[in-house]
Amino acid sequence: MTALVFVDSASPAGRIADPQQPQLSVLDQGVTRGDGIFETAHYRAGAVRKLDAHLSRMQASAAALEIKLPSEEALRGAVDTAVAEFLKDYDDAAQATLEAAVKIVVTRGGEDADHGVAWVMVSALSASLLEQREKGIDVILLDRGYDSTVADRAPWLLMGAKTLSYAVNMAALRHAHHQGADDVIFTSTDGLVLEGPTSSVLIASTVDGVKTLTTPILETGILPGTTQGAIFAAAEKAGWDLGYGPLEPHHLMEADAVWLVSSVRLLAPINSIDGTKISRDAELHRDLQELVDQIM
Ligand code: PLP
């Protein structure tokens, strides 16, 4: 069962609510315009992983949209309460291996409201998502329709912010499913690799015994991934070389391994791009998996 907790100024720990009951005003611009922000973090082994990075990115998103955030203390209180509420349904043995998605949402509120509504939802992971970590995924490249300099030129597009307006991203995923693929990598109109609709792109190669990880440059307007950031920090300590590309599709085809990475799905190794099989180096995957397991 999904656990739901609203951030509530009257209670530092938040207010537990029933996710099966109506809770939100139809006048909230988060609902009528997708005008709000969110974060999705990963719960595992007793902790919400890299919550600091998620809250810090949420602050950046809030600043970009000029949305008022509740205090960090209130958000953390609601997260703790929601996780505790979610865990109630599981015995100790189940809790040891349990994973969950922790979603924090903040809306703009009604037309005349001076603040929006904030809540935390904790829910179990779908079997298909877990399966992708093992089996890997087939992706297609899709044109996002913007060039790679748009973020700088048109800040009102909110390119690096995690807004509630994910209808386009979900449409891209449906388009991929209709083509028999699992996921998407967006490209810019000038031919650069960007990101997935809900993930960052990572590529790895071993050259003269040195393992190298590369991800697209942020200036292309992609979301700064907290998973990519944490993997890079761990990889640097472990002696990997790191790079920020301008990456083009041929770099993906030539790499020893390519993944879509995100907080909850973690590492989804890519098996094929636009129907062409690509290399999936098992050793690099194992090494990267170890780094991902260290992330807290
Ligand atoms: N890019 C987009 C567009 C996303 O929606 C996400 C996550 O949902 C990511 C990248 C990966 O971000 P993170 O690693 O912080 O989950």
Describe what this molecule looks like in 3D.
The protein is of the alpha+beta class and 296 residues long. The chain folds into two domains: 3-125, Aminotransferase class 4, branched-chain amino acid transferase, N-terminal domain (D-amino Acid Aminotransferase, Chain A, domain 1), CATH 3.30.470.10; 131-294, D-amino Acid Aminotransferase, subunit A, domain 2 (D-amino Acid Aminotransferase, Chain A, domain 2), CATH 3.20.10.10. Helix content is 33%, strand content 30%. It is built from ten helices and 14 strands. The strands form two sheets. Strands 7, 8, 9, 10, 11, 12, 13 and 14 form an eight-stranded mixed β-sheet that branches. It has a six-stranded antiparallel β-sheet with strand order 2-1-6-5-3-4. Helix 8 (226-237) packs across helix 10 (282-294). The two termini are 25 Å apart. The mean pLDDT is 97. Pyridoxal-5'-phosphate is lined by residues 40, 195, 198-200, 223, 225-228, 262-263. This is 4-amino-4-deoxychorismate lyase. Its EC number is 4.1.3.38. It is an enzyme of class 4 (lyase). It comes from Neomicrococcus lactis.
